[in-house]
Design goal:
The complex is a heterotrimer of chains A (290), B (549) and C (173). Chain A has 290 residues and is an all-alpha fold. In chain A, 78% of the residues lie in helices and 0% in strands. The longest helix of chain A is centred in the middle third of the chain and has 30 residues. Helix content of chain B is 40%, strand content 16%. Chain B has a five-stranded mixed β-sheet with strand order 1-2-5-4-3. Chain B has a three-stranded antiparallel β-sheet with strand order 8-9-10, with no helix packed on it. Chain B contains 19 helices and 15 strands. Chain B is α+β, with helices and mostly antiparallel strands and 549 residues long. Classes of the chains: A mainly alpha (290), B alpha+beta (549), C alpha+beta (173). Chains A and B meet through α5 and α7 of A and α8, α9, α11 and α17 of B.
Chain lengths: 290, 549, 173
């Protein structure tokens, strides 16, 4: 594969993530009986317009560290998505998988750091909420992803792993009911409260790319579950499947309300533990069968 | 016991306490009690099942050179108001009944602030109504203060009252508060343990303005309508009801029906608005959008019937200004049928969303005894098992002729208050349908009327948020004193109990669950709650001090 | 039963599908008003008498009347108007009608004000301007009997009546 197509394929997420977000907004609007962004161009590009508008606003810094962390967050999530695209081209390289998982965890760590670095009560509350949610799923997510990508296992275990991965992807994408860190009507946008203008644009761009990463991972694991991953054709399918996954996640979020910090993470943890337990049972069953 | 016996019993009791019965009307008994014994009498009334509606301080120096305080009690079961008058010369002390009737604290503080009355037991409490920079010896509701008086502002007085610890500030501007009000929540982890509350940021002096030469009996309904942005028609209806009671004006039956119909339409749209907002607070934005979509035809219907989507402007003393003809009636029935269908279908979805059920159940609990002691009103009372509804207890306008249920839930939590409102939407739709079908013929307003001076009357109308009370002493051309008690005024003190031990996430829903309407209340006080529940009705200001011990 | 409860939030999709999009493309498309809507008022200067009855009933003082030299100016300030239509109900000349106009935003306050200027009639005796000409004209049309004293100001009318009264009882002036 030549370098042009490599550059092209790594550039895709940076361009399309806000477009997918615009489409999600349009679909959500339809479910809420609204029109949403008006016109053909806005239907696909509204989030880009928003980002451009926010970038053109004046910069207000409540602390200098915040700007640095915001930019670092974008940087690390960008590295993650680049590695993900490389992985898509060369899925057989194990060190790429290791890098991918490392950077996934680093980038989510940075979004936590951004949240707690602000001296604002609403932001602190939001940060702690994000901690709980991330703690409840992150470990399960990364380990199940690693097992799924590195090891070939029987279909039943694959399905359970996929369930864990899918649930985690949904939770980590910060959609209702797990947007408790943001929770606009409760804690006035929580972790985003002190962000405005270019900083808010940077953060929401990071969020778009993060959602892209999660949607693509979910699409890839779906193909892996079906058993057609690993070919060039499958990579193409993954790229095409990503927007559909993205929108399905969005549609699910429209139909739910926001959870509470003492309910949501604990329920998640319970579900995760049940899935892990089922997996153990399945493993024992499979071993005895062999 | 019939009405006559009740009045007799009250008369007997009044004589026993050394008071006199001033006047007896169909709906109210006005008595005067010596101020030394008012506590005992208030206690007797309270134990006999009366709810405190409000109290009103009046500067009567131009009539009898005294200041008076009127305590307005309502015997819900009998449907009769008892108005106690106590009076004093300038500078003399008046007793407080707040120790016997906890709900009286706010209005007594207000009388102290606005009229400079010396009410025993309230001396050391901070200001309730007036801002911190208001000059010391100026009492706005006294007749010698001009209505357009503007004191010079002194910024250094601000901030004296704020507590030293800093909690989580909610307000004056916050996404869930539609109006400026200040809450400070003290949290442990994500559990609310205490709350500090300061309001009255948007006090507009409407009561004073209505007494000024700027207004007359005829134009005050339009002013009253602007007390509240959502339930404005309730206020104008309550005002005209009170004036009509004071002047004994017989209002044509058709006008009574039209008023009831419009009031119910207002209730439907207000409840739908609240349900949408509640959905939004719970993160279910689709619910917000769809409920407001269902609400839209109701707003258009209101415009069709009255000429305006809000602030209908059709109430005048003696009747209404817009008639409902056959074609409007037909359209209205169509709209209501559709709204009922759509709302029914959507409520099924709405109440099955797991997060909504989970978060509303068991949060913001207001037990029945507390609800009784604080005389809470409206869906807040009905969600706590109190069967209070002015439409049933003190029938006014055409409600006597409609049959409807009063939904009551005993759990006292946010879900109970939510379900009360859902049920009431259906009840209101049915009331409007019944009244439209039975709309009598005739004129819609009386030709002429006379309003004699110095008559007193109490009127109450069930607003979407609860009982709205107006008290009027008539004067020449305009009221001598017009006292407005919005429903939220009565419900806010209950928040301190509801917020105790509530998860922070649901504190916002709890605040919203009384459907607060701050600018119509516009009153606020420092509520400080005690985590342990120790001294529950201890003075509202002293909570934290006791908690620290 | 349990499953149908869990699946119930999904019914949102069927509702949304059935209802479609309800957002109106304002300001394009048909007007969103009903027949009884009350908007800004319009005063017909040809019919207006300048009597000022509307200024007395207007709750927010959106209609005011002032003297400017020898002219009476009836000012309508839309910024204050609450669109109640009391003035239209009261107007004895039916000069005020309630329109359906509601897009009233303007870039300057002056654009929200409308003036109806009336010339004032001078008193036939003392020559002081005292009332709008249109009012005298229309009152005389309605009540022809007023013709002989309608153009005299109340002051002079009073003086004249006192004089006539005095003459009857034999006062010497």
């Amino acid at each position: 594969m030549d370098y042009t197509s490599l550059a092209l394929i790594t550039a895709i997420p940076f361009l399309v993530a806000p477009i997918y977000d615009s489409i999600e907004r349009k679909v959500k609007a339809a479910i809420q009986s609204r029109i949403g962004p008006l016109g053909l161009a806005r239907s696909f590009l509204q989030s880009w317009f928003d980002l451009i508008k926010l970038f053109s606003k004046e910069l207000v810094l409540t602390s200098y560290g915040m700007a640095l962390i915001t930019i670092l967050e974008l940087l690390f999530v960008s590295i993650t998505v680049v590695i993900l695209q490389i992985f898509l081209i060369t899925p057989q390289l194990e060190w790429v998988i290791a890098l991918l998982i490392t950077f996934l965890s680093i980038s989510s760590a940075f979004s936590l750091i951004r949240a707690i670095s602000l001296d604002n009560p609403f932001s602190s509350i939001g940060a702690f909420r994000e901690f709980y949610v991330t703690l409840a799923v992150e470990g399960f997510f990364l380990s199940s992803l690693a097992i799924m990508l590195l090891v070939e296992e029987p279909i039943i275990i694959k399905m359970l792993l996929f369930c864990i991965a899918a649930l985690s992807c949904y939770v980590l994408s910060g959609r209702t009911p797990f947007d408790i860190a943001e929770a606009e009507p409760e804690i006035a946008s929580g972790v985003y409260i002190e962000l405005s203008g270019p900083l808010l644009a940077t953060t929401s761009y990071s969020l778009h790319i993060r959602r892209y990463v999660l949607a693509e991972i979910l699409s890839y694991t779906l193909l892996k579950l079906i058993g057609i991953a690993g070919t060039g054709f499958a990579s193409l399918i993954t790229l095409l499947l990503t927007p559909i996954t993205w929108i399905v996640l969005g549609v699910v979020s429209v139909m739910l309300g926001r959870t509470r910090v003492d309910v949501g993470p604990i329920t998640l943890l319970k579900v995760m533990l049940i899935l892990i337990f089922l997996m153990f049972v399945a493993m024992i069953f499979v071993v005895r069968l062999v | 016991m019939s009405m006559k016996d009740v009045v007799k019993e009250i008369e007997g009791k009044v004589v026993e306490f050394g008071g006199v019965v001033e006047t007896i009307t169909d709906t109210a008994v006005f008595v005067e009690i010596p101020k030394e014994r008012v506590k005992e009498f208030a206690k007797w009334l309270y134990n006999a099942g009366a709810f405190l509606k409000t109290c009103a301080g009046v500067d009567e120096r131009s009539i009898n050179s005294r200041f008076a305080v009127y305590h307005i009690f309502g015997l819900d079961e009998k449907g009769i108001d008892v108005v106690l008058r106590i009076s004093s010369l300038e500078g003399e002390a008046l007793p407080s009944i707040a120790s016997e009737v906890p709900a009286a604290e706010w209005c007594e503080l207000e009388a102290r602030d606005m009229l400079g009355l010396h009410i025993l037991g309230h001396e050391s409490k901070p200001r309730l109504v007036l801002p911190q920079d208001w000059p010391n010896a100026v009492y706005p509701l006294r007749k010698d203060v001009p209505y357009d008086y503007r004191p010079p502002s002194s910024v250094e007085n601000f901030g004296k009252e704020l507590p030293s610890e800093v909690g989580l500030p909610v307000g004056p501007y916050h996404p869930i508060l539609h109006e400026p009000e200040y809450f400070e929540l003290y949290v442990e982890g994500e559990r609310v343990v205490d709350v500090f509350y300061r309001g009255f940021h948007v006090h507009r002096g409407i009561e004073k303005l209505a007494e000024s030469p700027r207004f007359t009996y005829k134009t005050i309904p339009f002013l009253a309508e602007r007390i509240c942005g959502i339930c404005g028609f309730v206020h104008s209806s309550c005002y005209v009801l009170t004036v009509e009671r004071a002047a004994k004006i017989e209002v044509p039956e058709r006008a009574q029906f039209i008023r009831s119909i419009v009031l119910e339409i207002e209730r439907i749209h207000s409840h739908l608005l609240w349900l949408g907002v509640a959905a939004h607070i719970l993160g279910y934005d689709a619910g917000f959008m769809h409920i407001w979509r269902i609400r839209e035809p109701i707003m258009v219907l209101a415009e069709l019937l009255t000429g305006s989507r809000k602030t209908y402007g059709i109430n005048i003393v003696g009747g209404v200004r817009r008639d409902i003809d056959e074609s409007k009636k037909k359209k209205a029935l169509d709209v209501l049928r559709n709204v009922r269908e759509e709302f029914k279908r959507f409520v099924e979805v709405f109440t099955s969303v797991p997060e909504i059920v989970k978060r509303a159940t068991g949060t913001g609990v207001l037990p029945k005894d507390d609800a009784r002691a604080l005389s809470v009103v409206g869906p807040t009372a009905r969600g706590s098992g109190l069967r209070r509804d002015v439409r049933k207890d003190y029938p006014y306008f055409a409600y006597r002729l409609a049959s409807f249920k009063v939904p009551v839930y005993s759990e006292g939590d946010n879900l109970a208050r939510l379900l009360v409102r859902v049920d009431e939407v259906f009840e209101s739709i049915s009331i409007v349908e019944q009244l439209l079908d039975a709309l009598p013929r005739g004129s819609i307003a009386v030709e002429s009327y006379e309003i004699p001076s110095f008559r007193k009357a109490v009127g109450a109308v069930e607003a979407p948020r609860g009982e709205d009370v107006h008290f009027i002493i008539t004067g020449h051309g305009r009221p001598y004193r017009w006292r407005v008690r919005a429903p939220t005024y009565q419900n806010i003190p209950a928040l301190k109990i509801m917020l105790r031990n509530t998860p922070l996430a649901d504190a916002f829903l709890t605040i919203a669950s009384i459907d607060p309407c701050f600018s119509c209340t516009d009153r606020a006080v420092v509520i400080r709650d005690v985590r342990s529940g120790f001294r529950r009705f201890a003075s509202l200001f002293e909570g934290r001090r006791y908690a620290n011990k | 039963m349990q499953i149908s409860r869990i699946a119930s939030p999904l019914k949102l999709l069927t509702i949304a599908l059935k209802v479609g999009r309800v957002t109106k493309k304002y300001p394009f498309g048909p007007p969103l008003l009903t027949e009884s809507f009350r908007g800004a008022i319009s005063i017909d200067p040809a019919k207006c008498w300048g009597c000022g009855a509307c200024t007395l009933v207007c709750p927010p003082n959106a209609l005011t009347m002032r003297l400017e030299g020898e002219k009476i100016v009836l000012e309508y300030f839309k910024g204050r108007c609450i669109f109640c239509g009391m003035c239209a109900d009261t107007c004895p000349a039916n000069a005020i009608i309630v329109t359906k106009e509601f897009e009233l935003a303007a870039t300057s306050v002056e654009d929200l004000k409308e003036d109806v200027i009336h010339k004032m009639s001078k008193c036939a005796i003392c020559g002081k301007p005292f009332v709008a000409t249109a009012e005298i004209r229309d009152v005389m049309k309605m009540q022809p009997i007023t013709e002989e004293y309608a153009n005299i100001c109340p002051e002079c009318r009073k003086k004249r009546a006192v004089k006539a009264f005095g003459m009857r009882f034999g006062a010497s002036t």
